[in-house]
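[READ THE FOLD]
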Amino acid sequence: MSIQLNIDEMLEILNFLEHPDYQRVKEVTEDLATELAQMVEVVEPRLVSIGDAFFEGTGFAGTCAPFEPREKGPCPKVLEFFDIEVQQWRDMQDD
Protein backbone atom coordinates (compact mmCIF):
# COMPACT_ATOMS: atom_id res chain seq x y z
CA MET A 1 0.00 0.00 0.00
CA SER A 2 1.19 3.54 -0.65
CA ILE A 3 0.13 7.13 -0.14
CA GLN A 4 -0.58 8.90 -3.43
CA LEU A 5 0.39 12.57 -3.40
CA ASN A 6 -0.44 15.07 -6.12
CA ILE A 7 1.89 17.87 -7.17
CA ASP A 8 0.33 20.42 -4.82
CA GLU A 9 0.71 18.10 -1.84
CA MET A 10 4.37 17.50 -2.67
CA LEU A 11 4.92 21.25 -2.98
CA GLU A 12 3.28 21.71 0.40
CA ILE A 13 5.65 19.16 1.92
CA LEU A 14 8.70 20.87 0.39
CA ASN A 15 7.50 24.18 1.81
CA PHE A 16 6.87 22.65 5.23
CA LEU A 17 10.34 21.10 5.23
CA GLU A 18 11.84 24.43 4.11
CA HIS A 19 13.54 22.55 1.29
CA PRO A 20 16.14 24.74 -0.42
CA ASP A 21 14.68 24.00 -3.87
CA TYR A 22 11.06 24.71 -2.90
CA GLN A 23 10.87 28.16 -4.51
CA ARG A 24 12.44 26.96 -7.77
CA VAL A 25 10.16 23.92 -8.01
CA LYS A 26 7.11 26.06 -7.14
CA GLU A 27 7.97 28.52 -9.92
CA VAL A 28 8.51 25.74 -12.46
CA THR A 29 5.14 24.24 -11.51
CA GLU A 30 3.40 27.62 -11.82
CA ASP A 31 5.06 28.21 -15.21
CA LEU A 32 3.84 24.84 -16.47
CA ALA A 33 0.30 25.52 -15.23
CA THR A 34 0.36 28.93 -16.96
CA GLU A 35 1.47 27.25 -20.19
CA LEU A 36 -1.37 24.73 -19.90
CA ALA A 37 -3.88 27.54 -19.35
CA GLN A 38 -2.62 29.31 -22.48
CA MET A 39 -3.06 26.06 -24.45
CA VAL A 40 -6.70 25.85 -23.30
CA GLU A 41 -7.25 29.44 -24.41
CA VAL A 42 -5.99 28.60 -27.92
CA VAL A 43 -8.32 25.60 -28.22
CA GLU A 44 -11.34 27.34 -26.65
CA PRO A 45 -11.06 31.01 -27.70
CA ARG A 46 -14.07 32.10 -25.62
CA LEU A 47 -11.93 31.51 -22.53
CA VAL A 48 -9.38 34.01 -21.39
CA SER A 49 -6.80 33.45 -18.69
CA ILE A 50 -6.82 36.55 -16.52
CA GLY A 51 -3.53 35.86 -14.86
CA ASP A 52 -0.63 33.56 -14.40
CA ALA A 53 -1.05 30.31 -12.50
CA PHE A 54 -0.02 30.35 -8.87
CA PHE A 55 0.28 27.93 -5.96
CA GLU A 56 -2.04 28.74 -3.05
CA GLY A 57 -1.42 25.66 -0.94
CA THR A 58 -3.55 22.56 -0.56
CA GLY A 59 -5.91 24.25 1.89
CA PHE A 60 -7.07 26.51 -0.92
CA ALA A 61 -7.04 25.88 -4.67
CA GLY A 62 -3.56 24.40 -4.96
CA THR A 63 -1.93 25.39 -8.24
CA CYS A 64 -4.47 27.07 -10.47
CA ALA A 65 -4.94 29.59 -13.25
CA PRO A 66 -8.01 31.83 -13.28
CA PHE A 67 -10.30 31.78 -16.33
CA GLU A 68 -13.20 34.07 -17.08
CA PRO A 69 -15.47 34.63 -20.08
CA ARG A 70 -14.20 36.67 -22.98
CA GLU A 71 -17.77 37.20 -24.17
CA LYS A 72 -21.31 36.53 -22.97
CA GLY A 73 -22.63 33.09 -23.66
CA PRO A 74 -23.01 29.63 -22.20
CA CYS A 75 -20.22 27.95 -20.32
CA PRO A 76 -17.98 26.14 -22.81
CA LYS A 77 -18.48 22.36 -22.88
CA VAL A 78 -14.87 21.82 -21.82
CA LEU A 79 -15.69 23.39 -18.41
CA GLU A 80 -19.04 21.66 -17.88
CA PHE A 81 -17.25 18.72 -16.28
CA PHE A 82 -16.31 21.03 -13.39
CA ASP A 83 -19.73 21.76 -11.88
CA ILE A 84 -18.62 24.58 -9.59
CA GLU A 85 -16.92 26.39 -12.48
CA VAL A 86 -20.14 26.30 -14.52
CA GLN A 87 -21.98 28.20 -11.78
CA GLN A 88 -19.09 30.63 -11.38
CA TRP A 89 -19.14 31.18 -15.16
CA ARG A 90 -22.87 31.99 -14.98
CA ASP A 91 -22.27 34.34 -12.05
CA MET A 92 -19.59 36.22 -14.04
CA GLN A 93 -22.05 36.59 -16.92
CA ASP A 94 -24.47 38.38 -14.58
CA ASP A 95 -21.91 41.00 -13.48
Remarks:
- The two ends are 48 Å apart (CA to CA).
